[in-house]
Amino acid sequence: MKIGIVGCAGRMGRMLVNETAKTKGLEVGGGTDLPGSPFIGKDVTLIAGLEESGVLVGDDAKVLFETVDAVIDFTAPAATMKHAQLAAETGTILVVGTTGLSNDQKDELKVAAQKAPIIFAPNMSVGVNLAFALVEKVASILDKDVADIEIVEMHHKHKVDAPSGTALGLGEAAAKGRGVNLDDVAVRTRDGFTGAREDGSIGFATLRGGDVVGDHTVVFACEGERIEITHKASSREVFAKGAVRAAKWAEGKAPGLYSMREVLGL
Ligand SMILES: NC(=O)C1=CN([C@@H]2O[C@H](COP(=O)(O)OP(=O)(O)OC[C@H]3O[C@@H](n4cnc5c(N)ncnc54)[C@H](OP(=O)(O)O)[C@@H]3O)[C@@H](O)[C@H]2O)C=CC1
Ligand SMILES: O=C(O)C1=N[C@H](C(=O)O)C[C@H](O)C1
């Protein structure tokens, strides 16, 4: 199975090239970076720290979609929308890990998924997807009169979206467990004289600094006690492994929008 990696010079892009190259039955079929990037024309595997393969970084995603079996996209929302369109036009499997998509962009992804299998998840690690299931369960047991839900996340200083896609995913899992919509109860920032906490709200706190790969904690704060569900990623490899697993899982699947929880059977 030939895998194309868009944004192959990025932090996740390089990790994905590595993971693809070492996975049995998969080969790196190509990679792209932003037009004008100094990486265009460089060897895709060489820039990922591997042996030279002769596969060069391109800037034409259309050519990539026409030549590979699956494309993995950890880029930026606007780029992901273009890639979703190309997946729809070519019927190519698309694995999307990009976060920070607006609700309209998520709708566009759903439309593209009518024509191609698309797996979309804000976090591709097994641990976080298990945490999604655990949070949904705990939130279904502890209702708003018993527990206040707060979600804390920390990432490296280069991250451009907040709260993280995973934090929002954890919020969605908690909201689902309580039978409410996250958009109706989310408090994404607090500053100044905020007044007391509203019962049933789900709060977010965002920390940025250093090289933190990704830490998330969901706090269920009750009277006299607290339950905390924490996940800490110490290597981006866990995300790359999940994305590559999703690409393999999607082979032969009908068009549709799939989640990582479906890929993992959780
Ligand atoms: N779902 C998950 O499990 C995970 C998701 N992520 C998400 O993945 C995304 C990327 O993260 P990260 O790797 O740290 O970010 P980086 O900025 O390191 O990488 C993004 C790469 O995409 C490139 N790019 C941007 N636009 C295009 C385009 N149109 N065509 C091709 N390449 C493009 C960028 O190029 P340039 O630098 O020139 O702009 C860059 O090389 C983020 O949204 C992040 O939140 C991250 C980890 C795990
Ligand atoms: O940008 C990152 O680095 C990460 N982004 C994802 C997110 O927004 O949740 C996943 C992971 O935590 C790393």
The CATH architecture name of the largest domain reads: 3-Layer(aba) Sandwich
The Rg value, from CA coordinates, equals 19 Å
Low confidence ranges: none
Biggest sheet layout: 7 strands, parallel
N-to-C span: 25 Å
Q: In CATH, what is the class of the largest domain?
A: Alpha Beta
The 3D shape can be described as: elongated
CATH fold descriptor of the largest domain: Rossmann fold
Number of strands: 12
Task: Write out the distinct hetero groups bound to the structure.
Answer: NADPH dihydro-nicotinamide-adenine-dinucleotide phosphate, ligand LZUJQKHR
**How many structural units, i.e. domains?**
2
Can you list the strand order of the major beta sheet? 3-2-1-4-5-6-12
String of helices and strands: EHEHEHEHEHEHEHHEEEEHEH
Binding site for (S)-2,3,4,5-tetrahydrodipicolinate: 156, 165-166
GO molecular function, one term: oxidoreductase activity, acting on CH or CH2 groups, NAD or NADP as acceptor
Enzyme class: oxidoreductase
Keywords: Amino-acid biosynthesis, Cytoplasm, Diaminopimelate biosynthesis, Lysine biosynthesis, NAD, NADP, Oxidoreductase
